[in-house]
Amino acid sequence: MELTNIFNAIENHLKNTNEELGFKKTDATDSSLAFKSDSGSYRLVYDDDSNILAFECAYDVDGSTSEFNTVSRLLLEPENVDDREVRSLSNEIIEEVERLFKTNKKVNLEKVKMPKAVSRTKAKNGLISYDVDSLANRFGALYPDFKDTIKQNIVDYGEFLPETFFAEYGNERVLSVIKNGSDAERKKLFKLLNEIFEDGTNEVQDIIAVTILGEMKNDPDLMAVADKYMIEYMAGPVHEVNKITGKNNRLTKKLKNPPAYKPKKKKSFSLANTLSEGANQGQR
Fold first, then answer.
1. How far is CA 152 from CA 105, 166, 265, in A?
2. Rounded to whole angstroms, how far apart are CA atoms 67 and 28?
3. Contact present, 212 and 175 (Cβ < 8 Å)
4. Which of 86, 106, 226, 235 has the fewest CB atoms within 10 Å, i.e. the most exposed one?
5. What is the DSSP letter of 130?
6. CB distance 149 to 139 below 8 Å
């Protein structure tokens, strides 16, 4: 089926939902479709290279429209799609639109609390480990301009979703500091990452090694800077991850196109764990 026909069919399936929630079409191209209402906007954007259809939303908050955030990604191969699959895809989109916009989504971010960080003393004493909420809190403290973005992430997903936040926002700052930051800025960044990695849970270690520092993709200049500031405990996994993210293979494709987000069933793809399992199997 042609992509244009798929979008036309999806729009037709969305008609009743859009009318009920007050959405009107605002834009349409060969690879995108957008709608807007008084409560916000949503759009469908197709990437021909990855065959991914992204569902993105923005909300009206106190009269201002927030930036678009990717809510889910769906695999779409037009040449293999029939009417039944278009209906199924449309139903998934309808569920997302109703979940996000059927209730009043206007949120005052000032009333949304930042995730709580684990005590440094307790983490160092081994009483409790740093978690992803600690990472969010410390990152927001280091870069206050990201606090509202972190809060919006919590509003969008009902919890802090680190993979989405860093892939869409945080990593750009991290890579910028590694590439162009001063010595003081780099020290502050890696002090944060080193501390949380050293005394963190497996999940937060995975986020740091794969989702964040894996984005260096084994670039020699970036890796040289990172090596200057990383603790040895973190450097090993980061180098192993970058040997893979610097290539184009099955694992990196899975990282680029993760499964669609489903609330309460979040299980991130763990490249670090995959590396660990491979090493263990090799020793058997």
1. 11, 13, 20
2. 19
3. no
4. 106
5. B
6. no
| Residue keyed to tokens 């009920």 | 20
| Amino acid residing at 52 | I
Of 76, 70, 148, whose CA–CA distance to 108 is shortest?
A: 148
For residue 267, what are the contacts with CB-CB under 8 A and spacing of at least 6?
none
Considering only residues 260 and 196, tell me which one the structure prediction assigns the higher pLDDT. 196
pLDDT at 263 over 60: no
How crowded is residue 228: how many other Cβ atoms within 10 Å of its Cβ?
A: 12
pLDDT in tens, 96-149: 888 888 764 456 788 889 999 999 999 999 899 999 999 999 999 999 999 999
pTM: 0.56
Which two tokens mark 71? Answer: 């809510």
Q: Do 189 and 213 touch, CB atoms closer than 8 A?
A: no
Q: How far apart are CA 185 and CA 142, in angstroms?
A: 10
Smallest CA-to-CA distance from 158 within 107, 217, 211, 122 is with: 107
**DSSP element (H, E) containing 34:** strand 32-37
Handedness of CA 213, 163, 250, 79 (dihedral sign): negative
Instruction: Give 215's Cβ-side CA count (13 Å radius).
Output: 19
221 contact partners, CB below 8 Å, separation of at least 6: 179
Q: How far does Cα 132 stand from its chain's mean position?
A: 13
Alpha carbons 76 and 6: distance in angstroms, whole number: 10
* Residue 252 CB partners (closer than 8 Å, separation 6+): 244, 245
Could you please report the per-residue DSSP string of 36-84? EETTEEEEEEEETTTTEEEEEEEEEETTEEPPPEEEEEEE--GGG--HH
